[in-house]
Each structure stands twice: as C-alpha cells, then as structure tokens.
Amino acid sequence: MLTYAVRRLILSIPTLLFISFVIFMLLQLAPGDPMAQVPLTVPPEVKQKMREALGLGQPPLVQYWKWLVQVFWIEPQVLIDHIFGTAFSAGDLRVISWQTRSPVMDIIIQRIPQTLWVVGVAYVVAILIALPIGVYSAYRQYSVFDQAGTFVSMVGFSIPPFFTGPLLIVIFSVQLGWFPSIYDTTHVVNDWASFKIQLQQMIMPVMVLALQITAQLSRYMRASMLDNLRQDYVRTARAKGLSEAVVVNVHVLRNSMIPVVTVIALGIPAIFGGAIITENVFKVNGIGQLLLTALFANDLPMVMTLTFIFAVLIVLFNLVADILYGVLDPRIRYD
C-alpha cells in the first residue's frame, strides 16, 4: 500500500503541472482587463507602468514560469520562515493579488477558517445524518420512513441554495428573529457566550448546505445498501445464524461504504472551495466568495492559485479514496 501511495504521488506531479498550465492558458485567453477598475483620470502612461509592475507586459510563458517558482519554491520558504523564524524568503517576490496588492496565500489563509466553520461543519453534519438514513431506508424499503426520506432527498436536489437561503432568512431572521441574517466574519470565539453566538450565525448556512449534501449521500448509501442486501453472502450469513444487526451493520454496511467513500472523499475538496452561492447569500467571507470576487476583478493570480489548490486537493483525495478501498475491502490489493 505504501509503495502504491508513493507511486501515485510521484505520478501526480506531471498531472498537476499539466493542469496548472491548462488553467493558466485558459485564464490568459479569458476576456477582461485588470486595469479596467482603475479610474479614468489615471493617465495612460501611469496605467502602463502599473501593468509592468504587475508583470502584464511579459510573455505568457514567462509569467507562468514565475508563478511556478513562486508557488513551489518561494511560498514553501515563507511557510518555513513563519514556523521556525528563519529568513529564507527575505526579499523574494511572492504571488501578489492584482486586486488587493497583497500576497495571495496570506489572503487564502485568512479566508479558510470562515469556510471551514460553515462548509466543513455542514459536510460533517450531512454525513452523520445521511448515512443512517440511507442504511435504514434500504433496510426498510418502501416503508413510510423510506418514502419520507426519498421526498426530502428530492426536495434537497430540486431546490437551489439561492432559493432556500433567502427563504430561511425571511422565516428565521425577519419573521421569527431567531438567527442573524448576515454572518459576522469578525466574530472571535473566546468563551462559551461567544461560541453560542457563533453557533447561531452558523445554523442557517449550515442548514442550506447540509440539505443538499444529505440528499446526495443518502441516495448513494441507500442504493449501495440495496445492492448488497440482495447478495448471496447476506443469505449465507443469515443461514449461519448471525444476528440481523451483525449482518446489516457489519457485513452489508462495510461493503456498501466502498462506492460511498468515493463520493465523500471527492466532496472534501469542495469544502475548501467553499460554497459560492451560500457564502454570498449569508455574506460569509470565505473562499467561495473570494473566488467570485477575484473572477469579477479579473484577478488572475488569485484565480490561478485557488483553482490549482482545488486541483491538488482533488488528486490527493482521489488517492485517499483508493487507499480506503483497501481498508474496507481486504480483497482489494495494490501490488
């Protein structure tokens, strides 16, 4: 397993380099001008100097090479300097946002906690709810519980976040006044009272996201359980006198988790990517909102770095899913 993991990690390097090059060239072809937001009163010669300062006057391949050096060489040095107090990156030019003129990685690190508070908690809540619902719905197929779960799942699939978000705001914020409609990103949790305030402002965006994720995962879990409940090994286990709880919760559940693990693992990068619509509805100052504002401002370094990070996470969690296959099913071997 270790050899397989190392081999996959080595093979992922050229894959990620190719992905980064494709993303960079697509962004170069995209319409828009980072100088479009500069006031019209700024003289053309000043705009030209600003372009040169941002590196816009250089050929695309030169810009791409500089971005690679900054991301793979300078930024790791910055991290080492921050942890150990060294000065390896002193004087080196980092990846700079065209919109804020600040280092891109510093802005991303500032936004990640807000995204994890909302999207990460929603994903964990959805998994804890969806898996038991899927298991019990499959075991009690066509029961009232199964039909209710199917109805709720269809609602979760059908209603988009830009509808459920404002609907929850109207009901719970405007009419009832239970929860705040705007997420306060400046709020600091340092005691029990501040933690309760944090929970209050998280409830509605977490509900919106958890509804969608639960609908997806519960359907996958139900379908996988139904497929395994009909297998011969289930009848054999029952014939041997094993209890129904052991048959369902040990044998069937373990085999049913194999396809569901793929959905869960590949959904984890979306946590760091944020939820663009939900974050904008509730004014969560997270990664999703950052990506959207960077796209509108034609901030290519920010968009490039964020999309590359998403690509790295997808490749990494693909590997995690493959490794978990071997843990769940001993018959799977990576020799």
Distance, first to last CA: 8 Å
Number of helical elements: 12
For the sheet with most strands, the description reads: none
At the fold tier of CATH, the topology name of the largest domain is MetI-like fold
Series of H and E elements = HHHHHHHHHHHH
How much is the radius of gyration in Å?
24 Å
Spans where pLDDT lies below 50 across 5 or more residues? none
Query: Structurally, how many domains make up the residues?
Result: 2
Strand content: under 5%
Helix content: over 70%
The CATH top-level class label of the largest domain = Mainly Alpha
CATH superfamily of the largest domain: MetI-like
* Structural category: mainly alpha
Q: How many E strands?
A: 0
Q: Overall mean pLDDT score?
A: 80
Shape: globular
Q: Which architecture of the largest domain per CATH?
A: Orthogonal Bundle
